[in-house]
Amino acid sequence: MGEQTQTQNQAQTQTQTPTQTQAQTQPHHDSAASATVTGTTTAPTTMEITNGSSLTSSPPAKIPFRPRKIRKLSPDPKSSQIVVAETQATPKPLATIKSTKSKASHHQRAVPAAPRIVARSLSCDGEVEIALRHLRSADPLIAPLIDLHQAPTFDTFQTPFLALTRSILYQQLAYKAGTSIYTRFIALCGGEAGVLPETVLALTPQQLRQIGVSGRKASYLHDLARKYQNGILSDSAIVNMDDKSLFTMLTMVNGIGSWSVHMFMIFSLHRPDVLPINDLNVRKGVQLLYSLEELPRPSQMDQLCEKWRPYRSVASWYMWRLAEAKGAPSSAAAVAAGASLPQHQQEEQQQHHQQTQQPQLLDPINSILNLGACAWGQ
C-alpha cells in the first residue's frame, strides 16, 4: 500500500512540473496579460484516482489550428521579453476552397465575354452596312428610321488643314454667303491645293477683309496655320490621333470649339463613334426617339446613347433626320450632312436653312450650331 501511494505521488509531481515551470518564467502580475496577448489557454489534465484502480487521464483534445505568429517587441519598458501575438483567423477548409475555385472557373467558362466590335472608318467598304446592322440589333427603336431614310455615305475627303480652314470660313454664315467667301478665298490661295499653312500666314488681315473675312476669323485662320507651322498639328498627326487626343488638340485652336471638332471628325475624317452632345438637333432627335418629356442635357447624352457604340456617328445622322422630319429647324449639321442626300433634298435643306438662319442667330445655342455651316456640305 505504501508503494502504491508513493507511485501516485510521483505521477502527480511529474504532471505539475511543466505547469509550475511555465508559471515561473513570467512574474505573477503579468500572467493575465500574457494569457490575453497569446490568446491561448492551457487545459488542465484531469486525473481520476480510485481505490484499487490504475491511473487514467481524459482523452487528448484535438490539436487546434496554429495561426501565423507576428513577433514584435513588447512596448513594456520594464520587460525585455518578446511577446508572441497570434492571429485568430480561422481558415476555410481546403476542400471548400477547391470547390469555390472550381465553381468560379466553371462559371467563367460557361459565360464567355461578348466579342468587342472594332469599328473602321465609315469610308471603308461595307462599314456603313455593318453599322446599320449593329444599330438595328442594339436599338430596335432606330430600325424604322433606317428603313425610312437612305443610308448615309461618307466618300468625300479633304486634307485636314483645308477642311478646318473651310470650317472657320463658314462660321455663322448662311450657305450662300459662306460659299461666296470660300470661293474667293480659294482663288486668293491659287486653288484648294494651295491652301497650305505658309500660304494662309502670308495673307494679311487686309487681304482677307477684302474678300469678306472678318478680322476675328482672320486671326483664327492664322492661329491654325501657326500651330501647323510650329509642328503642334499636322495632317498626318490629326489622321492618326485617337478621338480623345484629337478633340483636345483641335479645341486649342482659336475659333474651333467642340461642335466644330465633332463635325470635322464625322464628315471629314469619317470617324465612326462620334456623338455631338452639344448639337441641338441630335438632342432633339434623342428626345423624340425615346419619348422624353424634356430635351436631354449634353451631360445625359453619353448615357442615353451608350447602346449605339461604336457607331454613334451614324446614329447621330439619323437623329438629324428624325428632328427634321418632326419640323425642327435645320441646323448647320443637317446641311453639312446633306452631302449624303440626293441633290433635290440638298437644295430643299439649303433653302430651309437660309430662311431660318436669321432667327437662329438670335438664339445663343443655335448660334453655336451655325459654326462651320455647310463646311462639309459638298
Automatic annotation (TrEMBL):
Gene Ontology biological process: base-excision repair, AP site formation; DNA alkylation repair
GO CC field: nucleus; protein-DNA complex
Pfam families: HhH-GPD (PF00730)
Annotated stretches, region: Disordered: 1-65, 334-359
SUPFAM superfamilies to which the protein is assigned, alphabetical: DNA-glycosylase
Gene Ontology molecular function terms on file: alkylated DNA binding; DNA-3-methyladenine glycosylase activity; DNA-7-methylguanine glycosylase activity
UniProtKB keywords: DNA damage, DNA repair
Compositional bias per record (Low complexity), positions renumbered to this chain: 1-50, 334-344
Signal peptide: none
Residue ranges of every copy of the HhH-GPD domain listed in the record: 169-324
Family: Belongs to the alkylbase DNA glycosidase AlkA family.
Designated name of the protein: HhH-GPD domain-containing protein
UniProt organism field: Carpinus fangiana
